[in-house]
Amino acid sequence: MIKSRPAAVASTTSVVARGVIVIATIVGLFGALLPMLLMHLHWNLGISELYFAPMRTVGLAVMAASVACFIGTGLTLAMFGRGTPLWFQAPRRLVVVGPYAHTRNPMVLAAIGHGVGLTLYAGSLLIAGYVVLGTVWWTFAARPRESADLIRRFGREYETWVRHVPLLIPRVSSYRALDDTPTRTLVADGAGKIRRSARRRRR
């Protein structure tokens, strides 16, 4: 199991700036550069494009919404979790607000949405395959390891969140942590060590 390393303690400005850099890098690499290379390969191989009239307009709208969701989620991790999506700069706190109050994996949902939108816009079967392979890799390789690491770090708090918030398809109402109930939470400090803390949640 790959163990995450909590991000170093830093000011809000530094945390947000770090989050913006990480988000821009991820979107640029996996959302733009790799799809462009696949499209170049698509054209060189002479593969026919899938196309119908409103396809590109719908694709652009889906991509725009997905990128906005991805950016919003990254900023939520930075401001409330004090970290980034990267395993070696992981959030210091479990984030259960914003998009995470509706789905446990809003970034993955946004990435899949972006891939679907890009497939519609480009009409490329290669890009469709790229999206499918990425989804399969996350489902069977990345997600189980991430879940195990979150259980190790946040314990009961994470398990409670899992019971109330869907894995991917968003719930309509926002999740709220259990109120007025003492909970024992596993918290990772700057050195990656685990300490226990008891606290009472309020409305």
What Rg do the Cα atoms give?
19 Å
CATH class: Mainly Alpha
Beta-strand fraction estimate? 5-15%
CATH architecture: Up-down Bundle
Query: What's the domain count?
Result: 1
* Number of helical segments with 4 or more residues: 4
First and last CA, distance: 36 Å
Order of helices and strands: HHHHEE
Q: Name the helicity range.
A: 55-70%
**Number of beta-strand segments:** 2
Class by SSE composition: mainly alpha
Describe the structure.
This protein is mainly α and 203 residues long. It has a single domain (12-200), classed as Four Helix Bundle (Hemerythrin (Met), subunit A) (Up-down Bundle). The chain contains four helices and two strands, in the order ααααββ. A two-stranded antiparallel sheet has the order 1-2. The longest helix is centred in the last third of the chain and has 40 residues, at 125-164. The protein is elongated and about 55 Å long. Mean pLDDT is 86; it is low at 179-203.
